[in-house]
Amino acid sequence: MNLQKAQEKLKEFGQEHVLKYYDELSDDRKKSLVAQVLDTDLSVTKKVTNGITEDKRGVISPIKAMTLDEINENYDDFTEEGLSAIRAGKVGAVLLAGGMGTRLGSDNPKGMYDIGITKPVYIFERIIRNLLDVVDASGTWIHLFIMTSDKNHDATTSFFEEQKYFTYNPEYIHFFKQDMAPAATYEGLVYMEDKDKIATSPNGNGGWFSSMQNAGLVDLIHEKGIEWINVFAVDNVLQRIADPCFIGATIKRNCTVGAKVVRKADPDEKVGVMCLEDGRPSIVEYYEQTEELRNTKDENGDPAYNFGVILNYLFHEKELEDICNNELPLHIVEKKIPYMNDNGEFIKPEEPNGYKFETLILDMIHMLDTCLPFEVVRNKEFAPIKNKTGVDSIESARKLLEENGVEL
Ligand code: UTP
Asked: If DSSP states are collapsed to H, E and C, what string results for 7-47?
C-alpha cells in the first residue's frame, strides 16, 4: 500500500529513479526508503524544472537603527524592562545548530569545535556561559531550545550530556530536529546517497519555527508563557544571548522583532544590511547589494545602508504563528553534494554538482510589520567562526575572545 503511494508520489515529481534498487533491498531497507519518500517534500525539485527565477525585490529605502548613543542614554531603563520580562518567564532562546558547517571542515557539529589553546573551550560552552551571565543577573533559568538536524542530532545531544550541559539546568534545555530537504542535480533529479536513501540536507535556517511546531515545542512555549524568542547562530562566540537591554528596547519601542546589528566595517563587507522594502523591514544580502546601494548617503553624509545583521533576532512569538502559514521564499543554492553514482559508488565531489533548497530566517523579518535594528559594539559581540583561517575564522575569533578577557 505504502509502496504504491510512494510510486505515485515519485511519478508525480518525475523521480522514479529513486526506486531503481528497490527489488534488491532487504525488507528493512525497503521500508525505510518508502518511509523517506513519503516524508520528503519533493515539490521543491519542481522549482528547478520550472526554471529558477529570483523573486523581484521591492523598493528599497533606509531604515532607522537605534544607535549606541541612544542605547546608552536609556541603558538602565531598557535593562530593567528586559530583566523583568525574563524574571516573568516571558523570554526563551533558540540556538540554530542544524547547519552543516562545511566551511569549517569538521565532521562533528560546529558547536563541538574546541577553540581553546591551553585548555578545551568549546563553541557550545561559550554560548552557554554567555547565557549563564543573564541567568545569574536575573536569578531565572531561561528555556533554551537547540535546533539540530538528522545529521548531527545524536552527536550534539551526547556531547551536552557528556559535558554535563556546561552547568546549565538540563530541565531548561530542549533539543529538536529541523526538517530536511532533498538535494538535486541541475536537472532537478534528486540525488541518492545510498541504494535506500535520498540525499538530503537541513532545509535552511528559516525552517526553525515550523520545525519547533512539528516537534510540539510551540505548545510548551504556550504552557510556559514565553512571549519573546531570541534566535541566534551557533557560530558567534561573543554574542550576548537574551540580552536584557536588547529585549527591553524592543519591548519599549513596540516592535514585533529586534535585530542586533553592527556598523559595517567597510562598504564591501559581506554582511546583509537592514533596510525597508516597500515600507516593511527587510534585509539585502551582501551579494545583492548594488554599487548604488553601497554608496548611498543619509542626510548626515553617512552610509545609508550601514547596519549589518549578525543573526541574533528577538521575535514576538504570537506574530510568528500568524506568519508561519505563509510560505517563506525557497532559495536554491549550488553546492557540492555527496552522492551514489550509476555504478553504486559513493562520490564526494570537489566542485558543486547540484542544488540544495533552503529557507532563510531573514525572509521572516520581511513578513513582520515592525523591526528595531539595535546597534551593538562589533568587537564585543561579533566573533563569527565560519572558516578555519582568515576572515571570520578560529584565528580571528580567538583574538576577539582574548581581547574580551576570555581565557583560552
Ligand atoms: P550558515 O549559513 O553559516 O551555514 O549558518 P552552516 O551550515 O553553519 O555553514 P556552511 O555554510 O556549511 O559552512 C548560519 C547559522 O544557521 C544555522 C547554522 O547552524 C548557523 O548557526 N543553520 C544553517 C541551521 O540551523 N540549519 C540550516 O539548515 C542552515
From this structure: HHHHHHCCCHHHHCCHHHCCHHHHHHHHHHHHHCCCCHHHH
Q: Is 100 close to ligand 1, i.e. is its CB under 6 Å away?
A: yes
Identify whether 344 is part of a domain: no
Share of the chain above pLDDT 70, in %: 99
Q: Is 318 inside any structural domain?
A: yes
- Minimum-distance ligand 1 atom for the alpha carbon of 202: 28
Cβ atoms of 49 and 187 within 8 Å: the answer is yes
β pairing state of 173-177 and 273-277: unpaired
When divided into structural domains, the chain yields a total of: 1
Asked, for residue 373, whether it belongs to a domain, the answer is yes
Ligand 1 lined by 146 (C-beta under 6 Å): no
**Non-local CB neighbours of 398 within 8 Å, separated by 6+ positions:** 115, 117, 408
At residue 351, φ and ψ (nearest 5 deg) are: -120, 155
Residue 99 has a pLDDT of: 86
Strand stretches in 324-377, DSSP E: 331-335, 339-340, 346-347, 354-358, 371-375
Tell me the residue range of the domain where 72 lies: 58-176+204-327+362-403
**For ligand 1, mutation pick of 124, 179, 234, 270 (most atoms within 8 Å of CB):** 234
N-terminal to C-terminal alpha carbon distance within the chain:
58
How does DSSP assign 171-186, residue by residue? GGEEEEEPPEEE-B-T
Q: Determine whether the shortest distance from the Cβ of 361 to ligand 1 is under 6 A.
A: no
Is the CB–ligand 1 distance for residue 96 below 6 Å? yes
**Residue 40 included in any domain:** no
Q: Which residues of the chain have pLDDT under 50?
A: none
CATH number for the domain spanning 255: value is 3.90.550.10
In this prediction the pTM is 0.93
